[in-house]
């Protein structure tokens, strides 16, 4: 067994998380010394306990305007997921949605994390059915996994159509149910488990415009499989906590949040070495004190 495989196994067995041990260490220290859990609004209390929470922002007109102007990018591959085109007009419509989310919700996340919070990556996608023979074939993150990031990396999923079980809603395991879930499905890795007849997962069904904040780094989750003839359209906004460091903020604010490759904001929540992880933790702590 390689050292990497051993670390992954330890993460799953001891901490119920499929992500690097240095990230788990970061999360635990941050939770004790930096995270602010006092006087949280109701939605953040639920997020803190379960790792996810449903919200319904007051942005119906702006979201409908966005949805009515969406079109799938041309010349895409044959298999899902399919991406919606994001041109300057769509970016303007997205900025209105972001503004409402920031005012009504992200303001409180800043207090919770004791840090600045920036949208780091935005994409609009469509999932449809494909023939999934086994866990070795995975096209749109449809196996149970954790995102391998620090927990200062979290996501908002917005339904762009009504989602029932037939549309293949995302399945999420709450933090408090994770240990029992891992034992029940005999979870060894992303491609090694059996989740038949499990009843631990939360299905993110709901009406168009319903939203879900969740911590993909701690909550095991997967995309559901739409039935034939059904689709799931959704908007993902990835947020990242940033130390209140002026020179860093000036640099990162120029990041193109519509591109995943070479994205300095998302990479901030994915340090490659232990020393980088600890330095980042220290930055969060010292800026929190200031």
Tell me briefly what this model is.
The chain has 290 residues and is α+β, with helices and mostly antiparallel strands. It contains nine helices and nine strands. The strands form two sheets. It has a six-stranded antiparallel β-sheet with strand order 1-7-4-9-3-2. Strands 6-5-8 form a three-stranded antiparallel β-sheet, with no helix packed on it.
The fraction of residues assigned to DSSP E strands is 15-25%
CATH topology: Jelly Rolls
Broad CATH class? Mainly Beta
Largest sheet: 6 strands, antiparallel
| Gross morphology | globular
Distance between the termini: 45 Å
Helical residue percent?
A: 25-40%
| Structure annotation, total helices | 9
Number of strands: 9
Strand order of the largest sheet: 1-7-4-9-3-2
Please identify the structural class as seen in this structure: alpha+beta
CATH architecture: Sandwich
**Number of domain modules:** 1
Q: CATH superfamily, please?
A: q2cbj1_9rhob like domain
- Rounded to an integer, what's the Rg over CA atoms? 19 Å
């Amino acid at each position: 067994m390689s050292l990497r495989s051993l670390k992954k196994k330890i993460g799953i067995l001891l901490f119920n998380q499929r992500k690097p041990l240095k990230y788990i260490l970061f999360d635990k220290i941050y939770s004790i010394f930096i995270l602010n859990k006092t006087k949280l609004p109701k939605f953040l209390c639920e997020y803190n306990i379960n790792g996810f929470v449903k919200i319904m922002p007051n942005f119906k007109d702006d979201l409908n305007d966005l949805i009515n102007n969406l079109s799938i990018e041309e010349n895409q591959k044959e298999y899902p997921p399919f991406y919606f085109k994001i041109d300057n007009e769509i970016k303007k419509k997205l900025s209105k949605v972001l503004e409402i989310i920031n005012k009504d919700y992200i303001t409180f996340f800043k207090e919770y994390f004791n840090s600045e919070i920036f949208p780091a990556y935005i994409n609009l996608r469509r999932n449809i059915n494909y023939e999934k023979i086994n866990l070795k074939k995975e096209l749109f993150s449809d196996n149970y996994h954790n995102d391998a990031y620090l927990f200062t990396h979290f996501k908002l999923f917005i339904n762009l159509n009504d989602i029932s079980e037939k549309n293949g809603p995302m399945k999420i395991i709450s933090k408090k149910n994770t240990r029992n879930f891992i034992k029940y499905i005999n979870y060894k890795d992303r491609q090694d488990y059996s989740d038949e007849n499990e009843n631990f997962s939360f299905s993110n069904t709901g009406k168009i415009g319903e939203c879900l904040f969740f911590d993909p780094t701690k909550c095991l989750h997967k995309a559901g499989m739409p039935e034939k003839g059904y689709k799931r359209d959704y908007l993902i906004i990835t947020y990242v906590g940033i130390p209140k460091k002026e020179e860093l903020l000036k640099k990162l604010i120029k990041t193109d949040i519509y591109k995943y490759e070479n994205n300095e904001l998302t990479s901030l929540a994915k340090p490659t070495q232990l020393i980088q992880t600890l330095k980042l933790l220290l930055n969060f702590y010292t800026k929190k004190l200031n």
